[in-house]
Amino acid sequence: MGADIKKLKTRIKSVDSTLHLTKAMGLVASSKIKRATDAMMKSREYADTITDAVSMLTACRECEKSPYLKKGDGKNTCLIIIAGDRGLAGGYNANIFRLAKEIRADEVIPIGKRACDRYGSEPVLAETFRYLDALELSKELCTRFSEGEFDRVGILCTNYVSIMSQEAQIKWILPLEKNENPNPISIVFEPDEITVLNSAIYEYIAALIVAAVRESYASEVAARRVAMDSAGKNAQQMLDDLYLDYNRARQGAITQEITEIVAGSDA
Asked: What predicted TM-score, i.e. pTM, was given to this entire model?
């Protein structure tokens, strides 16, 4: 009986330590959610605006000559994979890597410590990823794409639906899609449409990369918050059950001691 009580005390101590850890991580995630979602919304707005401008340019016949609209056979693929910087975020990282297995990529550019560890690259943290980092990557990708090193570029990231729901998805960013249903516009591009498009492509791709990174990071923080809340509730339930078992075992031990004392006095 004494051994059972000692074992229960050890388990209670272990679960209680886990409960404190999950609460702490949940609080950290909660403190980051507002900042992460604000940054995500700003990046979305900028990406949508520059996408509208590029869409107007791709509708112009002259822009069909741009190397960035050149369609390939999809045999040479470059994939930017954005995962989390840390674990304990439910299925966030697992969903990204599961989808990555379904897409054949000739070259992978990882962002996020977990992705960098998986693909053997120098750590690039999603939390501290900047627009200048995206612009540098954009220039490299656009140059290599225009030179024919690969014929399509995609971003594997996570779409933030709500704090309770995030979905892994693939976004193809190169080659550009021609706008087949343009709206009548009165904008005049100088010196001409194709020159503007070929100049703006770096900022456009950089905007899409930054938006994907910030949306993925917001998804990671939200997923961790939900996962820690769930783990905390499970740990608390387990702790309550262990305390109940401990009190029963302790009461049983006390009853046994009293019985032995009474039996000894009767003898």
From this structure: 0.85
